[in-house]
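Changelog note: in this version the structure field was regenerated for every chain. One regenerated record is shown below for reference.
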Amino acid sequence: MILMGFWDKLNQLFSKKDDEEKEVDPSQYLGSQDEMYGALDKIKSEYDAAVEAGKHNVEDDWPEDPGYKYLEYEGASKDEIVNSTAAKYDALLADKLADILVEYKGKSDLLEADKVGLQESAESKKQDIEEGVKQEKRAASNKLTDRGMGRSSVYYETDKAYDAALDGALGDVDAALKSDSAKIDMLLEQLAAQKKQSEDELNTAYSQKKQAETDALIDEMNKQLSTIEKYNNTIKSKTVKYLADRNKAIRKQAEEEAKAAREQAKFEAMYGYTGDKKSNYDKRLQTAIDFYTSLPKEAAIKLVNNNPTIAGYLGHYYSRLVSAVSDM
């Protein structure tokens, strides 16, 4: 009975202790735990950096951009060729047409001046004829009057004869003027026709020159574009092949690294970590043990058990931490 009473009291004591320990709230240590995670992350980063530094990355041998240069056409476009060639020959044509116009105007002005000269000469002749016939008519009239024939039929017939002679002489002058003017008009028409013919010939000639040069330049442009296209197609094909080879090399390295990682994991599962990795994981484990063993046991147990974060940092050493905390 005495022994039974002792065990009851002992059980009550441990039961009370368990109840007190269960009341520990581990959440108050989460901030400190995050700081410890930071320390572990720094230790891990040191190892990762060393591994990365010693690793040959195939992407260094196969940059994403192979550096192939595509050609670009830098010449004039079709519209620029058409417009510039047109401007060139239109300017040349305008100069030539201006020369023709100057020559035509010079000759036509001379002929027009000749027409004016003929008109003025005819008017002067007509004035001279009128004055001469007037004087002769007056002299004949005076002579007939002196002879007492001022009212005779001879007088009137003589007067009519002079008027008729005057009309005939003036008519001859007008006829000559008309004939000479017609000749000049014909020359003006011929000159205008020559001007038009010269202009038409120039327009045709320069249109042909403009078209020929435009066609030649566009043909040269097309040849350059064709050459560039062929070259760029070659570069495109090389780029496609390069990227395919690059992806193949990257996949191969990834497969080799995955295989090596599996083999290493298998080895470490059997024999544990070695070398620099072991030293680094030892530091991680010690850092974790130092932190958790500074906490109340039950709080430490709750924080460590089923903790994927700390398990990720410690790997195979996680079980050692669990044991260390349990043995506090």
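Spot check on this record: Residues 1-21 have pLDDT under 50 and may be disordered. Residues 153-271 form the longest helix (119 residues).
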